[in-house]
Amino acid sequence: MSAADGLLAARSRSGRLAVAPLAGGAWRLSDFPLAGAPAAGPGGVAALGQDGRLRWVPAGR
Questions:
Q1: DSSP assignment, residue 42?
Q2: Which of 13, 18, 25, 47 has a Cα at 20 to 30 A from 37?
Q3: Contact, 26 vs 12, CB < 8 A?
Q4: pLDDT of 26-50, one tens digit each?
C-alpha cells in the first residue's frame, strides 16, 4: 500500500492495482496484475506488472 499526492494505491484481492483518492471516492482497478507493491507519487502511481514492465497510472485515470 502507498499514499502520496492525494492518492491511495494498493493491491486488490485479485492482485491488480487499485487506486482511489485519499479524500474518498471509488476505487479504480488496473488491467494488469502486480508483481510487487505500488508506489504512489506526484501525479500518479508506479507499479511493476507480473510481465516485468514498469507501469505508470496517472492520477486522473
A1: T
A2: 25
A3: no
A4: 999 999 999 989 999 988 999 999 9
Q: Which three cell numbers stand for residue 57?
A: 497510472
Cα–Cα dist 54/5, whole Å = 20
Q: How confident is the model at residue 61 (pLDDT cuts 50, 70, 90)?
A: low
Chain CA centroid to CA 57, Å: 7
- Model pTM? 0.84
Provide the grid cell at 39: 508506489
Q: What angle do CA 8, 13, 18 make, to 5 degrees?
A: 25
C-alpha cell at 11: 493491491
Q: Are 26 and 14 in contact (CB under 8 A)?
A: no
